Amino acid sequence: MESTEPEPSDSRPQEEEEEEEEEEEEDDDGAHPLPEQPLTAMEDCLAKKMEITVSEAEKRTGRNAMNIQETYTAYLIETRAVESQGEGQCAPVESLWRRYSEFELLRNYLSVTYPHIVVPPLPEKRADFVWHKLSADNMDPDFVERRRIGLENFLLRVASHPVLCQDKIFYAFLMQEGGWKEMVNETGFQLKADSRLKALNATFRVKNPDKRFTELKHYSDELQSVISHLLRVRARVADRLYGVYKVHGNYGRVFSEWSAIEKEMGDGLQSAGHHMDVYAASIDDILEEEEHYADQLKEYLFYAEALRAVCRKHELMQYDLEMAAQDLTSKKQQCEELATGTVRTFSLKGMTSKLFGQETPEQREAKIKILEEQIQEGEEQLKSKNLEGRDFVKSAWADIERFKEQKNHDLKEALISYAVMQISMCKKGIQVWTNAKECFSKM
Amino acid sequence: MEAEGRVPGPPLPAGGEGPGADSHLAAGVLGTAQGPLLAAAEVLALDDEEDDLEVFSKDTSLAEVNSFSPSVPISPSSMINQYKFEDGPELRDLFITVDDPESHITAIETFITYRVVTKTTRGEFDSSEYEVRRRYQDFLWLKSKLEEAHPTLIIPPLPEKFIMKGMVERFSDEFIETRRKALHKFLNRIADHPTLTFNEDFKIFLTAQAWELSSHKKQGPGLLSRMGQTVRAVASSVRGAVKNRPEMFTEMNNYMETFSQKINLLDKIAHRIYKEEREYFNEMKEYGPIHTLWSASEEDIAESLKGIAGCIDRCCRATERRMAGLSEHLLPILHEYVLYTEILVGVLKRRDQIQGELDSKVDALANKKTEKDLFSEEIGKLEDKVERANNALKADWDRWKQNMQWDMRSTFTNVAENNLRYYEECLATWESFLASQTTDLHVDEDSEDRP
Description:
Strand content of chain A: 5-15%
GO molecular function, one term (chain B): phosphatidylinositol binding
Largest sheet of chain A: 3 strands, antiparallel
Oligomer: heterodimer
Order of helices and strands of chain B: HHHHHEEEHHHHHHHH
Low-confidence stretches of chain A: 1-43
Structural class of chain A: mainly alpha
Mean pLDDT of chain A: 82
Strand order of the largest sheet of chain B: 1-2-3
Organism (chain B): Cyanoderma ruficeps
Domain PX (chain B): 92-213
Distance between the termini of chain A: 97 Å
Mean pLDDT of chain B: 77
Low-confidence stretches of chain B: 1-83, 85-89
Keywords (chain B): Coiled coil, Protein transport, Transport
Coiled coil (chain B): 365-392
């Protein structure tokens, strides 16, 4: 008899999967050096064939599903085919407008359709981790601008993903303005969606999950927690830094007024005051740059969610598998009992038959037949579920490896860019205070 | 060794016959009442050569002074504050330090005394070294005696009785230290003043034992007579001393009005900056460790994260040093000048009052033609008084302005240096982190290319 235990995930190679996963991990800007193995036309990433930008944002008013007037922002997506031969002639730019809710629909579709893929996250719906200068208003132009960049980043990430970039719905999202929503809904993806995935807190007693996924889930929880904490403190630090710089601006004004009553000190005071103004003003650019760094971290904060979703999916598949196996086992046991007449386990049926007499042999035969059919079905289902589970683990893990590499690369770059920002800030500070010192020494 | 204690003061007036010239001039201005002091100043001027030698040897004792008073900061800039020579580098012959606050508990009260150490080569001092203990009350007494003796000289400010704002307790360590530094400043400013430095009460303050000082305090005009003077001063200044005021003093008044406004604003700004820097420091303290925490979950980027944490911590410490610089130099100086503005306004008023006495007598003379002679003598005396007061104030004003310029220049330059140090430290930290990261990147790339 075939094993009824769910098989542990093994690394038996599956031909198709391997080919796909041997592809190089793509940068979101497509600037990654060409992989050693030439890609087939099918697997060439969209990002390489097409320039994608989210170039504009526009305020619109319209009627929503409940026929109520609302204001929203629409984003212009521009695409242009990349000519690899360099004929000197640029392909025409195609464009269409999408709003945030459509991006959300696209992402939901991708998450459901590719549950084994760590699907890139969208930029935040509402402004979070704000410090006092930033507004929490969704209509605020700075927020809209940063969201525009985030949406573009999302599209580029999807376009550079070896699997996701081939999706027809995604392509239509970029190219087909009208009827796209209907197209998505026609795929019926909502039906495929496992509502249990949303129930984050529900626990399923999974006996034999792949340890890697369990560890990964812990990691994604830790990542989420630590990045949120970091972003919160960073916002407070930014707030305080802003205060330090801006108060120095008061020096400028007072020095200037004071210089009016001084003869010898006047010039020095006045020019020093000017430098204090420069110092105070410099913080605006510095902190704006830092917001982009924060956004980079935020992307991975949201990526942690996507990571957890994949782990969850594995858990659920494993759970279903174990349940199915359990069910099969119990059916087989029932069958055996009926066939041999022994009751191994307590069952109400057993009791009633004892109390009210045994069934007729014909009845028993019928039951056994039904059970045997069910067992047959069950075994086939278990087999396919097993296969599904193994496939899922294999392909999911491959994408997770790809994701890990991407994450390490991106975060390291982000940290380096943070250091670069700090260096620039220090250099500006040195310049201003050197100038100020000179002015003071002339007082 | 000598160079350490010396800081060039504001440029000396040209043509003086030497270091003694300034004090000579100042002494001469004060008139006959200050006879014995004048002689002392002349004596100093003649003993030029000897004075130089004395001062040179004094410099080595500077180190001793520091070792006697470990609580006095020995940082270069604080030495500048201590040993700034206002009248000329070679003239210093009186060195005072205030340190070692001690609590005294009696049945009636608790109070703090400070140790006042004086070292001097002056002839009129019986000894070359004195060590006494004084309490805040004694300083108050000294100040009022000086004001009494020299109504139109600018007497340096004393720290306030107690700070109303904030949570600084009367006897908190911070409060005591701030006060100690201000008292030290106070005595040194007097010592540097060409006239005040020879004041008898000042000498007694520096040298007398506790019981001697008490008995000396009991002599002299009582509180009531002093209050009487103040009342009259206020009254006459209200009555219209302003109308005959020389242009120069009206200008001074106008200047003080604006200056007072600005210095108060600067004081507030400086405190605000300190507060913001402290808040920034508090947040930064939390910021670094988060990166370390994160590195525990990571492999590839763990080193980078720990590197960032290290940089942030180092910048944190640099911020602390920057704050300390502010509170050590900028804040006390600005506060001192805030207090100075009150003093200056008072001095201008007293000058007005002296002039008021003259003016009212002159007015009275216009009405009484019979007692003309008597009046003229009195008026003559008053005119002299007014002239002496005006001259004293003018000279002291010029001196005060020069010192103010020097103080502001050096203090704000120090602030700039402080900030430069901070940014340079942070820059070095981040640059070395960046260097470590980019070498790592190159190593990674190499290993990637290998098949």
